[in-house]
Structure formats: C-alpha cells, structure tokens
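2024-03-11 09:14:02 INFO worker-7 job=invfold-0412 stage=load source=structure_tokens
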C-alpha cells in the first residue's frame, strides 16, 4: 500500500496543481482539513476543467475515521490515530474518486492459451 501511495504521489507530481484542491469539512482534528487540502493540492490536476467545488467530509470517530466525496465513502480503522497517515490516505482516496485513472480498454484476445 505504501509503495502504491508513493508511486501515485510521484506520478501526480507531473501535473499542474490547483490553487485550492477542494472544500474539506473535517469533524474532529485528526486529520485536519487544512492538511488534507494541502495534500490534495499536490495530487489533483487541472485537467478536464476540475474546480475546487468538490465537497469532502472527513469524520474523526476516534479509533476509526471516514471520508466522503462525490457520493463515495470509506471508513478506516486506525486505533493509533496516526493523523499523518490518515491525511495521506484521505487525499489519495479523494484524488482517485475525483480523477480516476484512465486504464484504457482491455485489448481483445482470441484465447488465453
């Protein structure tokens, strides 16, 4: 998972940045909304007319936390309350929802022999 996050961050570093990535509504202090917004500014591109109007909701529920954006949500377990890791995971989740990777069409194969 960490290797994937590293590659995603590296790959996204070649795209132009948004001045402000999104509106983050963080309930609780772990992760902080400003930290998520800063991480998103590094991940999201300006391609396809992306704007800063995406509403992101992050809830700190103690040992668990959740993130919701564009009709998608995820809940994660983190009893250690590692705010830095939560920030990274939230930013990657939101970036993948707002700008899913284009993996193209699978090439047709006549057989899998």
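2024-03-11 09:14:09 INFO worker-7 stage=emit residues=113
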């Amino acid at each position: 998972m960490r290797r994937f996050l590293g590659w995603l961050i590296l790959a996204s570093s070649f795209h132009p940045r948004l001045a402000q990535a999104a509106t983050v509504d963080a309930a609780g202090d772990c992760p902080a909304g400003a930290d998520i917004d800063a991480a998103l500014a590094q991940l999201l591109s300006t391609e396809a007319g992306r704007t800063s109007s995406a509403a992101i909701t992050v809830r700190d529920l103690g040992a668990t936390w959740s993130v919701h954006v564009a009709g998608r949500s995820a809940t994660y377990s983190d009893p250690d309350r590692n705010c830095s890791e939560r920030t990274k995971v939230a930013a990657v989740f939101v970036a993948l929802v707002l700008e899913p990777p284009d993996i193209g069409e699978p090439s047709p194969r006549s057989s899998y022999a």
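2024-03-11 09:14:09 INFO worker-7 stage=report msg="The first strand starts at residue 23 and ends at 27."
2024-03-11 09:14:10 INFO worker-7 job finished
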